[in-house]
């Protein structure tokens, strides 16, 4: 691992991963390829922007000629692929972009590395790696009491987002099986932490509550996610890159099962405590039950036995500590919040998704 191309490195998890990688791998060069869609922001990377081991390149993973050139220009030996459309609600209102980015974009990257690494350079396959970052949502939805998903569970994606990620996972697997591409693949549960765009549940609730705005809870709020702090996810991906078996997939998760309403109430309790002079106490009074998401998955739960026994990974942070740290991060980064919230795409999305709920 000498030159790592991180796709989607200006997004939430990608930017956290770049910070992590530059910190733990002192000799690695990082190329961040990102289209800077609404979800990507160079504000997430200001403190690494002058690092000589970091290069930002704006571009689209669907642009085959551009991707081909980039791999050669920087002699990339490792791709860590985060770039995607990532928000389920947006995939309900506008699915096309999800197919284009998540399916065609992943295909374009796979075909580019196949040509460059395997056909053209004939590199020793021990020296290269394509790591695909995916989600637990490919497995569908669990009912109460059903066993957690393992790496052997069947795919049953329910939303256009999940279906597009499932398709990309299948393409990755097929490039390994057919062309011998050395890949690893991780399916991770819901992440939270610094730099998350405030359209996702946790940052949305934190920022709305601080401003005294309604806290939208879909349906009965009893849907369950398996929450993981983003820093723990980054550590897991790095470990899979270093020690994971090529051609393998690994489940990653936080080993917790809170209902959405519990998450929202916990954030309210934290804010009641840390914002001693807040006007809106108790923040729980802001909770507003709104029309449910169509096709809303009820429960996710990841079995992390494989990554734990093979690679020794487990989450470091408890959900309670991670949520407290995250609330404090948003409170202590008002400039970042202001820049993101000024974006027209943010304001437009809040109207499109919530006005008629
Ligand atoms: P994000 O939406 O915050 O960031 C996505 C990034 O990809 C943005 O910087 C965006 O500009 C970039 N991008 C989008 N289309 C592009 C294109 N065509 N070319 C180049 N760049 C493009 O997403 P995230 O939450 O950081 O998720 C990253 C990855 O992790 C995704 O693949 C997602 O499916 C997966 N994942 C996310 C979670 C989660 O909870 N957020 C959980 C499991 C897996
Ligand atoms: P989200 O952060 O969008 O992640 P995902 O859909 O990928 O799990 O949503 C997390 C959960 O929170 C999900 O069950 C939907 C719910 N939710 C709300 O109740 N209200 C909201 O405003 C949002 C954005 C999500």
What does this structure look like?
- The chain has 357 residues and is an alpha/beta fold.
- It has a domain at 3-197 and 227-255 and 297-318: NAD(P)-binding Rossmann-like Domain (Rossmann fold), CATH 3.40.50.720.
- Helices cover 43% and strands 14% of the residues.
- The protein has helices spanning 12-24, 64-74, 88-93, 96-120, 160-179, 201-211, 230-243, 260-274, 305-311, 319-331, 334-342, 344-354, and strands at residues 3-7, 29-34, 54-58, 78-81, 129-135, 183-188, 191-192, 215-218, 228-229, 248-252, 287-290.
- Helix 1 links the parallel strand 1 (3-7) and strand 2 (29-34).
- The radius of gyration is 20 Å and the shape is globular.
- It starts with a strand and ends with a helix.
- Residues 88, 190, 200-201, 204, 216-218, 223, 225, 260, 293 line the site of thymidine-5'-diphosphate (TYD).
Notable features of this structure?
357 residues, alpha/beta, seven-stranded parallel beta sheet, binds nicotinamide-adenine-dinucleotide
